[in-house]
Amino acid sequence: MRVFNFSAGPSVLPLSVLEKAAKEITDANGTGQSVMEMSHRSKDFVPIIEKTESLLRDIMKIPANYKVLFLQGGAWTQFAMVPLNLGAVEFGAPRKKATYIDSGIWATKSAEEAAKYVDVTIGASSADRSYRAIPAVPPHNPNDDYYHFVYNNTLVGTKWPSIPDTGSVPLVSDISSFILSEPLDVSKFGLLYAGAQKNLGPAGTTLVIVREDLVGRAPSWVPTMLQYKTHAAEASLFNTPPCYGIYMIGLVLEWLQEQGGAEAMGQRNREKAELLYACLEESKFFHSPVEKSSRSLMNIVFFPRESDPEKCKDIENRFVKEAAAAGLVNLAGHRLMGGLRASIYNAMPIEGVKALIDFIKKFELSL
Amino acid sequence: MRVFNFSAGPSVLPLSVLEKAAKEITDANGTGQSVMEMSHRSKDFVPIIEKTESLLRDIMKIPANYKVLFLQGGAWTQFAMVPLNLGAVEFGAPRKKATYIDSGIWATKSAEEAAKYVDVTIGASSADRSYRAIPAVPPHNPNDDYYHFVYNNTLVGTKWPSIPDTGSVPLVSDISSFILSEPLDVSKFGLLYAGAQKNLGPAGTTLVIVREDLVGRAPSWVPTMLQYKTHAAEASLFNTPPCYGIYMIGLVLEWLQEQGGAEAMGQRNREKAELLYACLEESKFFHSPVEKSSRSLMNIVFFPRESDPEKCKDIENRFVKEAAAAGLVNLAGHRLMGGLRASIYNAMPIEGVKALIDFIKKFELSL
Hints:
The structure is a homodimer.
Chain A: E1 4-5, H1 15-23, H2 46-60, E2 66-71, H3 74-86, E3 97-102, H4 105-114, E4 119-125, E5 146-150, E6 152-153, E7 158-159, E8 171-174, E9 191-195, E10 206-211, H5 228-232, H6 243-258, H7 261-282, E11 286-287, E12 299-304, H8 309-325, E13 328-329, E14 340-343, H9 350-365
Parallel strand pairs in A: 1-13, 3-4, 3-5, 5-8, 8-9
Antiparallel strand pairs in A: 2-10, 6-7, 9-10, 11-12, 12-14
């Protein structure tokens, strides 16, 4: 029996997508091969990657002057590729500058990695408030080479209420847990990146959407595979890409388009999140620590109201265990954060959210 | 209907493995989830990666002082990671040295990438003979920090007849198209790497086997994700790994063990290759350009004996087209090489090789 999977990533995929993949697994599109067996340069696979890119461009309304790249290595590799491509310099040249906004633990890590290659200014941080809100940001520095923020903070459950205006300074965002959860104006950004394993498909593919004028800036000492131009020049076929992951993303995008695209997803996601936040507002035993204006629609973090840390931990453990027994899995908070967390990505049906709310209510009665 | 797929990679997988994957795709091991949906740190996924590593250690007899890493980015990323981890230095320090043997186009590219970070000596090359043989190698330089060769050259169809002796200089090899095709003495190497998409599983996972004393040597400026110690310290779970690829590798390794392991594979692969080379020896219209002592068991390159280049190209095109119509696909040589190539990895049954031989004989009669 299928469970409701509230994992923060890798995470739930639409059942119909998995069923289609199963059906085609030994013979896709009448080729007599699995997509896992297809030569990446063959007439069998090339239409698959082209279709995936075309669906994404369509659904996200990606302007023509942006490249779409299917890479590997996750957001963590982008933490290095962004500064290596947009800020790093040849040996001996003066270092360039970038501003990072510290809205959570991944934002901190991306800034730390960038500081190896560029002079990083932390423009604002909400670390002093345990990241319970997106910090207010000062005016941007026009001398920066780029400006980086994490759109949705998976771990702490926050989301930027609006996109900062950085004038001509390229805006870069990690949208791993935000992508396709609602409409996004790509034209406001210089570069967007996302690990696939939340709203796009299985882990192992990293999506990069980059404005063409930002491609080709990496100094020569940067590894060939970490230069955007390597992949942009070959339509993500410079070397063997994660073919099956790209195929799965294509199936997810087809499903998403059938569902009504990013607009419909945004509506549905707001509805799902509002139900769950309302349940927490009413709850005598749980609460959301996140300020209302910064609340994520994708990752809903909550804690027992209990103030004794040991009792609190007991309640959390019991909650996670009993929920799993009821078919609601992966509700523990991130290991660095504690508490509880329900990730309700696009593929989580509203029935899953309602089942969780019912469970919370029943659990409270047992306390 | 399934075809016989002679692709050099991504390439054929055992049908029983694909069928098992299909069966489990919406609910693996009674978890109610697809492996594609599992949190990588969950009690559902961790046993999968552990089992995959343990099977590999068992089948390859990997000594306990070697780490097994499941990474991303393909062999191309290793072309940079090897020098960045085994040879690169902090800014201003004197550069270290490595010897590369140029036995084919990938070997050349790996040496070019390494030259960004270390002083590379090309110890020997068979470029002047169009790579039709593995070059004879001079005694190793004891001052080198490592020595690199490509064990099986996918593109030109050669294989090293024996492992060079480099004393205490760490021996590094790209075994992407060699791994598990026959037994290998891992203890002779400092580091081995392989893209998964030939004998291991689908594209998107890169296997690294590295002796523990070689981990942790990268200078601090190397991107976190490109340092072996990052992944070695966290058993390949530093960030989200390509979970589904690792699961598929596990299924392939189970199949391989059932077949009798690396020894049985080696016997079967020799048998398959000998049949095909014998067919080419007898053929009046085709021939293998590769010297007998250097012939690959995995990638069998052949050319028409026709000397007129245009007629030759015509024959190749007709061969590829008619073979595909007969259910024998991906027989064109690499785009940089031309000619024809049959890649007959572990998962290619002997029936596929016999079908190809029959086709060659029939095709010749039609010439």
